[in-house]
């Protein structure tokens, strides 16, 4: 059961009750129930009476609240005591949390469990007293019958007087009385077993929470964890495995599996049973569950995993759950499993989107790298080749021209090296960490001069105090701004400055190009939008000013990092 589980036993034979361990457990429980009932009613009743008497001096409120708390607290003791009868209660997965005494009071008084537990406390003492009286009577009669031989041997010691006559037992009477005693013991054992079942049913009915309530709490916890796991989205296989574990923990299923459309098992929680893998003869309809009987009276529930229309495939496989013989999933549980199946579909779709984005980003990066290599390193290598050939051709007859060709070749080689270093800085994620922002911008400035003939006036004196994220944002914003200058500005000179005051790091990029109209271009261009998003993500701001024929100015302002988060970078050549 959800709230409490009962271990039932099949009893056969005359001596089955005497030999049944449950009989003696019931006897122990009834023996403890009377003092426990008296103790419970004494505490709760005493708290209520004391509270009513002293209510006028405000102390009574504390007594009344204490008595109300004792109802739930002693209820936990009663549940532990019910363990003697073999009753176990499902743990509370999400205990309520109250803020303040009034919130606790409202929650406790509105909880039906409070009144059911109180009813058990009230019933325990009189019911236990009745059990004691009945058992005492039965055991007394049994004891008297079993002591009949002692009465026959010592009639003067145990005289039985009826009127004016003293009764003396004969042999047949002794045998009959002993048979009565044995029968009394057998009846007492049967009555104890009956009383044990009665107390068991009573403890389950009044001390266990509503099964639907507990099931709903389990399902809420499972769905919350499943949603968090899907949102994390770090590992699809681990996510699917966690979803199956949550589904099995919150349901009555023996095992839960997630199966691919071709029948391949992707994740499993519980023992691998019949029907949990392999192809199906019929797929369940979208949003519906197919429940059918399989071997050994077990039931197999199959639910579809559907993906959005934008996914590569509309079928995500199935969620399958196996139930033990005699148990069938209800409508609420099937709805919960459908929610888990939807989470599995969301996880698969998210994995597809991440894979697509990664492939697309890889294609774009490869295309960008090809353009960069073609426009820079390939051109430099071609120029180096031409310069070397010219120097070789003029080596004997024109030394001055040979020297000029070699100087030209050396300049191209230096430019190619600078360009390659800039490309490595842009490709390696740890380049900024190793070299720092100043070194990265210096390398990029050398590449611009060698590759595009720009004159870069760089003022990069000191490494600014920035967090790693802010440092990366500053480099990417400067890189995008310089790329826009090369692509659109037709500038001859570029001024690149990095300065820092007490609270702000300022990265400034200015050019003498043709400029543009900010009202026409606006903030909607992809390059500017990307730069603004990077600046905002690092906690900074971006300002872009320009006018037609007057160049443009990009100013990035970032907050200075606290000393614990910033570390001067080692500038490497």
Automatic annotation (TrEMBL):
**What species is given as this protein's source?**
Deinococcus arenicola
Recorded GO terms, molecular function? kinase activity
Give the matching CDD domains: HATPase_UhpB-NarQ-NarX-like
By what name is this protein known?
A: Sensor histidine kinase
List the keywords (alphabetical). Kinase, Membrane, Transferase, Transmembrane, Transmembrane helix, Two-component regulatory system
Chain ranges passing through the membrane: 26-45, 52-71, 77-98, 119-152, 172-192
Question: Taking every annotated instance into account, which residue ranges of this chain make up the domain Histidine kinase/HSP90-like ATPase?
Answer: 469-562
Q: Which SMART domains does the protein's record reference?
A: HATPase_c (SM00387)
